[in-house]
Amino acid sequence: MSDRHELSGQKETRTSPMTFFRQVIAELRKVVWPTRPQVVNYFFVVLVFVLIMMAIVSALDYGFGKAMFAIFA
Length: 73
Description:
This protein is mostly helical. It has helices spanning 3-8, 17-30, 36-72.
């Protein structure tokens, strides 16, 4: 139990699974879902970002590998 509840004299009660499920559904109804074109756009933005990061990490790995072979070989 948190200190806040102890100080205010309130006792924490557990939410029943059915109440929790209803609250989840109510919150999901408030969500503004993206449109299909937005999802496609986000997909390509993320794909390009991941490909760029893969290229950077691969280049660093290759460069550090070559440097280690040059130093230790």
